[in-house]
Amino acid sequence: MKVIKTIAEARALRRQLTGSLGFVPTMGYLHEGHLTLVRHSRAENRHTAVSIFVNPTQFSPKEDYQSYPRDEARDLAMLEAERTDFVFMPSEEEIYPRAFSTWVEVTRITDRLEGAVRPGHFRGVATVVNKLFNIIEPTRAYFGQKDAQQVTVIQRMAADLNMNLQVVVAPTVREPDGLAMSSRNVYLTPAGRKAAPVLFRSLQLAREMWAKGEKDAGRLRQAVTAHIEAEPLARLDYVSVADTETLEELSVIDRPALVSLAVKLGKPRLMDNILLG
Ligand code: PAF
Q1: Is 34 labeled as catalytic in the residue annotation?
Q2: How many Å lie between the centroid of ligand 1 and the Cα of residue 9?
C-alpha cells in the first residue's frame, strides 16, 4: 500500500495506472462502514484509492474540527489489511493553499435538513470532493447511504458538472442493535450509547407504517417524533419525509421517499435515514 501526501505524487501515480480506479473519500477514524466501501471498490475496480483528510471547510467555527477523532496509524493498518492500493493523506495547505478562492455551491437541495442547521457545510463538502475527484480521477467513487443528503448533493454535482465518473452508494452499516456506524459515535456516553438505537427503531416504525399502506407523510413524521420524544436523553432536531431527488418535504408518499432524522443524545448529534420505495 502506497501512502501519498502531495497532489504531484497522486498525479504521477495516476498516470501509471491502467484499468479502473475506485475511490473512497474519508475523513479518517475509519470504521466498518468505510471498510465496506473499500470492499465494494475492490470488488468492482482494478485499483482502489482511499483519501484521509479532515476537511476544515465543512465544519462551522462552533463545530468539532479541532477535536474531530483522528488515528492515522490505526487507519493505515486497517486499510493495509483491506489491501487498499493507495492512500492519499494531504495536508491542509496542500488542499487549501493561501490564495484559495474557488467554491462549488450546489443550490436548493443544500438549504434544507443538514444544510439548514449547518450553513456552509455542503459548500465545503462539494468543494473538497470536487478537488479530490480532480486529483484522483477515479472511475467510480463510493459513499455511504448513512449521509443521505451528502450523497444527493454529490450525485447532483457530478451530474450537473458532467463529471466523468460513477457515484456508487452503499447501504448503511449498522451495529447489531441498529445504530448506524459513524466516526462520531465515539462521543456517546454509555447512557447515550444505550439510548442511540432509538433512531433506527423510529425509522423502522415509519417503514412498518408505510408497508401497511400509510401514505400520509405527516403521520409518519408524528410517529417518529413521538417515538424519539419517549426517550428521555434524546432531543429531536428534525424528522423529514422527502422526495429522494429534490429533498422537498412530501405531504403524500406517492414516490420514492427518504425518511431522515437528526437527534442530539447529549453532546453528539446522530443522523440516520431509510429509503421507502
Ligand atoms: O463523508 C465524509 O467523510 C466527508 O464529508 C467527505 C465526503 C470525505 C468529504 O470531506
Answers
A1: yes
A2: 22
